[in-house]
Amino acid sequence: RPVPRLGARPARPGPARALPAGGGSGSRAMELPPSHFPAARAAAVAVGYLRYLRGGPGRGLELREVRRARRQDIGDAGHKYYLELELEDVLDK
């Protein structure tokens, strides 16, 4: 995958897909309360990435609510988070 130039707009991602609850290696996803700190931290990282992809001078995305959060343990690598977020465009008011 080529590295984007500075100031270049990234390519638009495809449509969102539903992610499976369990991994192929037999690990299970654990439901987390949306107020759980690691879920909120993962949501903040996701919002930062979405701001980079979809944001612009006339668009300011902000996290409104974490509706649902699940964490899957990935062996010795760490955790994978599945999040359902509600975003708000604060500049579109």
Automatic annotation (TrEMBL):
Region (Disordered): 1-33
Biased composition (Low complexity): 1-20
Organism: Hippolais icterina (icterine warbler)
GO molecular function: metalloendopeptidase inhibitor activity
Transmembrane segments: none
Family of this protein: Belongs to the protease inhibitor I47 (latexin) family.
GO cellular component, as recorded: extracellular space
Cystatin LXN-type domain location: 28-93
The protein's name: LXN protein
Matching PROSITE patterns: CYSTATIN_LXN
One Pfam family this sequence matches: LXN
Keywords: Protease inhibitor, Repeat
Primary gene name: Lxn
